[in-house]
Amino acid sequence: MTPRTYGPIRLTEGAKGAKARPIGLNEVKLSSEGQLGAWQQQNAHDTVPHLMNNLVSTGALANLQKLNTPEFEFKGMWFSDSDIHKSLEALAWSLHVLEDPKQIEFLKTATAAIEHAQEADGYVYTWYQGVHPDKKWQEFTMGHEMYVAGHMIQAAIAESRIRGNAPLMTLARKFADLLVRKFGGSNKVEMCGHPEIETALIELYRETNEIKYFELAEKMILARGHKTIKRPTETEFHFGDSYLQDHKPVLEADTVVGHSVRQLYLNAGVMDLYLEKGDERFLKMQERQWEDMVYSKMYVTGGLGSRHKDEAFGDSYELPNDRAYAETCASIANFMWDWRLLLATQRGRYADNMERALYNIIAGSISVDGCKFFYSNPLQYRKGHFIAFDTDASERLGWYKCSCCPPNIGRIAATFNHYLTTTSVNAFSIHLYSDSVINTQTESGSKVDLTIKTKYPVNGIINISVNTASEFALKLRIPEWCKGNYQVSIGGQNLAATTDENGYITLERNWEAGDNLVLELEVKARFLKPHPLIDASRGCVAIQRGPVVFAIEQADASNPKDDIEEFVVDASQEIQETTIELPGYGKIVGLLIQGSNSPLVEPMRFPYAEKISRTNSASTKVTAIPYSLWGNRQKGAMRVWIPELQK
Ligand SMILES: [Zn+2]
């Protein structure tokens, strides 16, 4: 076996809470015939260079390069160093896909810039160094010092795992060691208002075997929740303790609240702690939080954090469609959290949720050319939408004032290989299906050599060929959305295979080279209704086909004069599949839905009346497209939840 190139999580040998382990990035080759493989290629060829260009043009790189020189002039958000680190992480991971000399050169240039800016004790954060040196280590609520350190550590880990030697690691460890000296041991610990350092320090421990990093992360996680992050001097701070994830200790917090990205990054760290130590109390509380989130605070698209104010989770069932915040980073953070829960439990519901985020919000947050991004991901767009901030944009933008999302998409796409399968003792599990070649082994050493051919999620046919004879249990996830309608066959012979309590079928046998296994999942378009307490979607239906949620857009009205916002759907009619051409993307599955345009009989000025009369226009059809592809044509209205025709 060639040595394993580890991805974002490398569990230690003795990880007590892990039921399964990720395989190496180099052990799964994604084919560009599949959606994830094609996306990963585009990420390497287009998205990563786009990130590099913007780090230069926005001045983020110059903040580091010009520090301590007369030309220094700070540009961007105070935490813009994190744009550099996150982009470097995306770039470094992506080198396993494409070893681009220009990208390697950029990595060296940026590393030299960080080295130039770093102080002798390891500190590097250009905002405080260059603009407010008096405020170093004074503003833990909004300062983001440790958040930035966390992203620097993660970039260094990516470079170390992909390139072997990592100049960035030397610099990142200097910063991490500074944190250990300041806050570790018997010193008073401080926590960052924006979690991120916790998961990074635990991964640094996994990478270096230095327990001091793990101990500091654990100390920070356990110290949270006592309302101590806010400084008495920070009188202007107007966010609550939940915004900082400092409202309740993690062992008491059974609901998701506050700033959604902060909540979910913290949870990734808590799960890393659990995976290593196996203290069941943490898992129990994390699973309760997950249920609170998925059962009452998540959009059908996998969007999280419904409130623009404080970028926060709303109340249960508070899920407005037009004013959905649903930040891209929140769904990415959730994807990372779900993955850790899946490693800990092997429960398919976490993979179901990863898939919902992946094929809807995360896929939808990037344009078909790979270089424009959504920050917030509403489920309804009204024509003439008023835009107050770029985070409320009506179209994908190339960059943002706060550009956390674009590099986050880059680092996820570069590491898709990490998130698809796991190994355990004599078993190999496939959680997410994509066209690929897999060459790895189970934890007990059985060879796993498979070729997967599939167009998933366009259809649910997954062909798995065994290339080398071997004995192991193959576990295949049966997604929740296929409602138990699946068939599995080997060599054309149908098998009776039932799912276990985690939602997987297990095929245990002596595999022969040339064995051909076919899993067919029924991919059928369905109308979904909302929980009665989701007021914003009452009387409406959404459409889901496989894991993909659909939307209707003005561009698909059968008559351009029809106003898609007046369309009502007849959900008693069959949904018909069709193929349409999306410019710049190619052919996609569209769904023809039946309904009618129901304009008002008389225009209403005052928009409330005892009786509303709408005309019964002739029946018409509208083509729905995957939500992830909306906004790639002319601007116009869009909606996921469509009012139902009242009969
Ligand atoms: Zn973001």
What does this structure look like?
32% of the residues lie in helices and 18% in strands. It has 14 helices and 22 strands. β6 and β7 form a beta hairpin. It is globular. The mean pLDDT is 95. The site of zinc ion has 7 residues, from α12 and α14.
Layout of secondary structure:
Layout: E1 21-22, E2 28-30, H1 35-57, H2 60-65, H3 81-94, H4 101-117, H5 126-130, H6 145-163, H7 167-183, H8 197-208, H9 211-223, H10 260-277, H11 280-296, H12 328-345, H13 348-364, E3 380-381, H14 405-413, E4 421-424, E5 427-430, E6 436-441, E7 447-454, E8 461-466, E9 470-477, E10 486-490, E11 493-495, E12 504-511, E13 516-521, E14 525-528, E15 540-545, E16 548-557, E17 567-569, E18 576-582, E19 586-597, E20 619-626, E21 638-639, E22 642-643
Parallel strand pairs: 5-9
Antiparallel strand pairs: 1-4, 2-6, 3-21, 4-5, 6-7, 7-8, 8-13, 9-12, 10-11, 10-13, 14-15, 15-16, 15-22, 16-20, 16-21, 17-19, 18-19, 19-20
This protein binds zinc ion (ZN).
Zinc ion (ZN) binds at residues 327-329, 375, 404-405, 408.
Shape: globular
Q: List low-confidence stretches.
A: none
The number of helices is 14
What's the end-to-end separation, in Å?
A: 64 Å
Question: Are any ligands bound, and if so which?
Answer: zinc ion
Radius of gyration: 25 Å
Estimate the mean pLDDT confidence: 95
- Biggest pleated sheet: 10 strands, antiparallel
Helix amount? 25-40%
Helix/strand/pairing class, anyone?
Answer: alpha+beta
How many strand elements? 22
| DSSP strand content | 15-25%
